[in-house]
Design brief:
- The structure is a single chain.
- By secondary structure, this protein is an alpha/beta fold.
- It folds into three domains: 12-263 and 304-428, TIM Barrel (Alpha-Beta Barrel), CATH 3.20.20.80; 269-302, no CATH class; 450-736, NAD(P)-binding Rossmann-like Domain (Rossmann fold, 3-Layer(aba) Sandwich), CATH 3.40.50.
- 37% of the residues lie in helices and 17% in strands.
- It has 23 helices and 32 strands.
- Strands 1-4-5-6-7-9-13-14 form an eight-stranded parallel beta barrel, surrounded by six helices.
- Helix 19 (571-586) links the parallel strand 22 and strand 23.
- Helix 20 packs across helix 22 (663-674).
- The longest helix has 25 residues, at 159-183.
- The chain is elongated and about 90 Å long.
Amino acid sequence: MTGAQGRRLFPELWGGVECTLHRVGDSFHSQIELSGHLGRPVDLELFATLGITALRYPVLWEMVAPDSLDRPDWSFSDQRLPLLRRLGIEPIVGFLHHGSGPRYTDLTDPAFPDLLARYAGMVAARYPWLTSFTPVNEPLTTARFSCLYGHWYPHGRDDRSFVRAIITQCRGIVEAMRAIRRVIPGARLVMTEDMGRTSSTSELAYQANYENSRRWLSLDLLAGRVDRDHPLRPWLAGTGVTKEDFAYFLGCEMTPDVIGLNYYLTSDRHLDERLERYPGQSHGGNHRHRYADVEAVRVCPEGILGHEEVLRAAWLRYHREVALTEVHAGATREDQLRWFHEAWQAALKLCREGVPVRAVTSWALLGSYDWCGLLTSMDGRYEPGVFDVSGSAPRPTALATALKQVALFGRAFHPTLTRPGWWRRPERFLPGCRPMPTIPDLPHPATGGVVVIGKTGTLGRAFSLVCASRCVPCHLLSRAELDITSRGSVVAALELFAPWAVVNAAGFVRVDEAEEDAATCFEQNALGPGILAEECARRGIALVTFSSDMVFDGSKGAPYHESDPVAPLNVYGRSKAEAERRVLALHPGALLIRTSAFFGPWDRYNFVTETLRRLALGETVTAASDLVVSPTYVPDLVHACLDLLVDAARGIWHVANVGAVTWAELATNCATMAGFDPAAVVPRPAATLGLAAPRPPFSALTSERWGALPPLQDALTRYLHEAAADMLALQLEHAGNGGTKKGP
């Protein structure tokens, strides 16, 4: 939106699909295939509901013409581009997204620019109504990963290959846009580049200066700024850039129409020669010094440069429209919201100052795979974005709601936005790097936040710890402070704390005792949650409450989905099934979590912890060999529940780690992983263990609504790492007592 004087009042809201198609050796890896978008055109209709005006979208060279430019396959773009046009969304078309091109070329091939230009001309001729193009996404970053670090094809590892890749890509951009403009004279070049600042110790100032000049290199080449006075000119000449190359770019007249800046929490770097202060994976260097290259946010008191300064610096350098063309954080859901909120607020501020910020782009609408490892290994590690595609269909997250609010009202609204992201908090620093005096901790608000019921229980304490780590204010209440079986107590607490959400982690948990005390079990597990649901619904408060795998009878013989009918075998299971019915009837917006057999590092009274304790003391462990469950790691469970809560998810969800095992198999696995003798685990049929309550023989959980938590083996590995100190202390204590137990 622009004012009467042509000044932009608000940036546009753009979106983007993570579409990296990079090559490692002879293998190509496609993000749009991993996300399912390749076969799901209906995603575009979901995007249209967000209120975006433009979409960065792939018409990738490697997809359309993988074997030859003479045999293109336009089926994907023929379907998608007209649909975007009908939906009123402008496509910003990309040809290469961290790619090296099809098999018949690469980033150091002299023929690359002409081949890309020919492809660009073919796209323009087929879709002459297109207006905006990004021929090559982040050429500098792609050159670094492909020809300096050797991660991607063609796997170069020297400055000469790196510079050649930059020159080749930028020539390709120039020739591609020339070919496009012969068909579409007004076509705009939306040039994108990762944009971070490098800081350093005084010893490494020369390296930081070099990297701060290098970050602009691709843009400077296109803008004709690499003249004799450019600080990188001597270095470029020394790495093989010819006089003809310099002359070509000085006369190319290809300053981008929109300077697109991709800025991440990892973009700003800090260099330090004191290697002992930093983890080994950060160690590197140049020909003069060895040094650590770390995220500036983790070590610098001033933190990150920030979106505002990134945009302002680009505007002052090029005096063209600027845009944030990728805004995404691989973080918890509320921190994803906070990161986007910061970007949007920075863009609004600059618009008011007269800086022409064209747009803010919510990137990775469908999330991304394995970028947490910079695509150096493809392990299927997924980070959700505006939609979560880990389930059977894309599910809108809290970011989807935020984008709709921005499109309608010019700002996002969510209770968690009142607190800062992790990059603004004291815990962001690496050990030994926190400045003195320390940044003061944020005060805990007297009202608002999340009320967690169950102060003495495993889940309640876990929620309190995780909420604190995520800067989500939490009031952890005991039964004396909020008794869910008393309507008066519930009303008083909700009025006193005025939360935006309530987590009910209280209840009757003694499964066998429930057989003899059904009245108390039902009062605490069904009647109480019903009262809580009714009062939360009356006030518009979000509610999370917990159910169990014991609502099933185990006859399915396979993991249970959310839609499977319940048929509990015991009193405890019947109380949970009744709670589900009551809560969802009284508060249809409630989030109801079914989980199973949880274990974790924050209490000593779960099966895994008790098993390891007994093994460490040289005792045997007897466990059921015919009851199959889905053990669930409490930190994973709580983080997932908070994400779903922030997303305003509702209804029944199964949340458990991937893996169905018997209790005996779980104990044996723990023994083996911890270095104990697995023969100390004694498998027994459940009928011989003296259990009062019947158990379902197979109650493993899976989900049809979303991707499950990490695999059980991964969770156990993390648990054992957390519990290692306690296990060692027990073993030392046992050895010190001659291998005998203390006491009578």
